[in-house]
Amino acid sequence: MNQQNWIIDPDHSGVQFKIKHLVISNVTGAFNNFNGGATFSDPHHIDNAEVHFSLDVHSIDTNQEQRDAHLKSADFFDAAHFPQITFQSAYFRKMKGDKYNLAGTLTMKGISRPIELEAEYGGVAVDMHGKKKMGFEVRGNISRWEFGLTYNAVLEAGGLLLGEDVQLEANIQLVEA
Fold first, then answer.
1. Measured between alpha carbons, how far is residue 165 from residues 23, 101, 117, 125, 162 in Å?
2. What is the mean pLDDT of the chain?
């Protein structure tokens, strides 16, 4: 079997997150610069694909410059010392239908931990330029505390400014390399 390498098409992909703020609503954001890819032994049977991903922490965008600067500071991501967030898969397994379990190691702020994500396979298509593309929607939750992002503030009413869990969502389009 021939290995097939695919890379992320950043023009047709996105990485977003959301976290509880004031315990009453979510604040959303994105990372605008990222790269990665996958290697498949057979793109028609994508089980056991190798998946890797890297996010540029400096590209965080919550649509509010002051908050973005705070997130890049040592209180949160410490982008000066830890400019990348990386993921390396351990396995990619079919669960049911087009749903897959994507497990691997996430490294953020110098801390590596195993995580599990759900990936929904969208299929393969050829674009207007004759390039073969493959689509996925990836979702999951992580505890920011497990990665050393423990900054918080206690509110007057006694609650916390920020929640522990961060919801991740990535819409990924791969292009055959």
1. 12, 19, 14, 35, 9
2. 86
